[in-house]
TrEMBL record:
The chain crosses the membrane at residues 278-307, 335-356, 368-386. It is a multi-pass membrane protein. It comes from Dokdonella soli. Keywords: Cell membrane, Membrane, Transmembrane, Transmembrane helix. It holds the Pfam family MacB_PCD. It is found in: Cell membrane. Residues 63-248 form the MacB-like periplasmic core domain. Residues 286-397 form the ABC3 transporter permease C-terminal domain. This is ABC transporter permease.
Length: 404
């Protein structure tokens, strides 16, 4: 089939051709970039926190009354929690990953360093912390009971020993061998010695670029309002059961305090990434809407042309054109329009990606998104025009003898 008659026919309907081509180009540009953004959001949402999220939960305890002793209650609570059926491990902590609040400070390699070598989150924990968090020790040792000290709220953080994440260790000591090295927290001295490195533990802030820069500090430190936070890891499959039992047990053990809401780490992740999940859903809906509108536009244009050319189609059939020839004519016509639009859309997609890079610091759109989108939209165009093309192929030769 020759292209020239088809191109000549299209040139007589320039407005429709331009509008459909522009629609296809915009759809390609938006869909490619939207899919890339959705992919990045899903990657963020699926990042491992370094914890056993399925079986772990946390809660706060706030004491009141003149006779309430936060340090004594903390020790009593930990002993009680660790003896409860279904509890695999328990610790005290000032924060947990993905919660959105905690203690972050600079870490240096020299005392009184003007600019910190790295920023890190401080988790104040006891000797059972790694077991409770589910953090895996990659080198060095875990905390011992003798490492854990009591720190009053507001004191300087100067622990003799700390455990850091691998990401933070690599940032502080790119050459490796961080175990046994000394660092300075909050512009020390004295220095703190790294005794262990864990593979991964996230910070409380999911949008932080250095999300895996975490420091475990062996210290009991209730907050200034007699508030203590506990992290509990239940035996597999018993988390909900243990949560109910813990709330009742601690409330009965000491009525001079309020037990806060118990929250599982699954719930924390759900809340922390609610914005990313909403964006992915909205962009997905936009993609479906754009594809639907583009398909309907192609169907509408093709249907209009079929109705407008009924006599012409009948004449071609009378002159010997087969139904297959008519079908191929409209498919090829759509192929030309969508291909021109998709070529323009390729440039538009990369231009939109560059704008997003400069305006919102997004990564560059990978090259393979556009070719895949090109093929998908070309297929969509061919499927969309198939219905009107088949109707056109069924026009009988006798139509050529009728007056329109």
């Amino acid at each position: 089939m020759e292209f020239r008659p088809i191109v000549s026919s299209l040139m007589r309907s320039k407005v429709s051709m331009i509008l459909i081509g522009l629609q296809v180009a915009l759809t390609l540009a938006i869909v490619c970039n939207a899919l890339f953004i959705i992919g990045k959001r899903l990657d963020l949402m699926n990042r491992p926190s370094g914890m056993n999220e399925d079986d772990t939960f946390f809660f706060g305890s706030t004491g009141f009354g003149h006779g309430f002793n936060a340090q004594t209650t903390l020790q009593t609570d930990l002993a009680l929690l660790r003896q409860m059926p279904g509890v695999a491990a328990a610790t005290t902590t000032n924060s947990v990953p993905m919660i959105g609040g905690g203690w972050r400070s600079g870490i240096g390699l020299q005392p009184k360093q003007k600019t910190s070598t790295a920023q890190g989150t401080f988790y104040f924990v006891d000797a059972k912390a790694l077991d409770t968090f589910g953090a895996k020790l990659s080198s060095g040792r875990d905390f011992k009971s003798d490492d854990v000290a009591s720190i009053a709220f507001g004191d300087r953080v100067q622990p003799p020993t700390i455990i850091v994440t691998k990401a933070l260790a690599d940032k502080l000591f790119p050459d490796g061998n961080a175990v046994g090295k000394q660092v300075y927290l909050e512009d020390g001295p004295p220095a703190s010695t790294i005794v262990g490195i864990v593979e991964r533990t996230q910070e409380p802030w999911v949008d932080d670029a250095n999300i895996e820069n975490a420091v475990f500090i062996p210290a009991y430190m209730p907050s200034g309002n007699n508030r203590t936070r506990y992290l509990v890891r239940a035996e597999p499959g018993r988390r909900n059961e243990v949560m109910k039992a813990v709330e009742q047990k601690l409330a009965d053990a000491n009525p001079s305090r309020i037990i806060g809401k118990l929250r599982s780490m699954e719930e924390v992740r759900h809340i922390a990434y609610a914005g990313d999940r909403a964006m992915a859903i909205i962009l997905g809906a936009v993609i479906l809407a754009l594809l639907g509108i583009t398909a309907l536009g192609i169907i509408g244009m093709a249907s209009f042309w079929v109705a407008q050319r009924t006599n012409q189609i009948g004449t071609r059939r009378a002159l010997g054109a087969t139904r297959f020839n008519i079908l191929c004519y409209f498919q090829l016509e759509n192929f030309i329009i969508t291909t021109v639009g998709l070529i323009a859309g390729c440039f538009l997609a990369y231009a939109l990606s560059l704008w997003l890079m400069h305006s919102y610091q997004l990564p560059r759109l990978p090259w393979y998104y556009v070719p895949i989108g090109f093929v998908c939209l070309w297929t969509l165009g061919q499927l969309a025009v198939l219905g009107p093309a088949m109707r056109a192929s069924r026009v009988p030769p006798a139509v050529a003898t009728r007056c329109v």
